[in-house]
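target protein:
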Amino acid sequence: MTYIVTDACVRCKYMDCVEVCPVDCFYEGENFLVIHPDECIDCGVCEPECPVEAIKPDTEDDADGKWLEINSKYSKVWPNITQIGERPADADEMAKETGKFEKYFSEKPGKGD
């Protein structure tokens, strides 16, 4: 099992999760974070840190494995992040919105550390 980041993170990107990760397996996109599934040690400390509940065990992924695939793909090309950075100005407003991936997701990398 591994943990995955899901739709709720898009344009929120609070990043509380990255500081508690003991193996630094988070990677940063312009408006989304992902977990590298081969680096995640399944400790689960990141899950309760996410204020929008975007982090889930891969056993709770969509039936088609959508989120595991997205996390796998982008963790290979985005920069690693280990510290809380600046969250988007509208993060609190975006936290309540659903279906954000299809509307707002950007493939562009973030700044990383």
Notes: The two ends are 27 Å apart (CA to CA). Residues 66-75 form the longest helix (10 residues). Residues 26 and 35 are 5 Å apart (CA to CA). The longest strand covers residues 3-5.
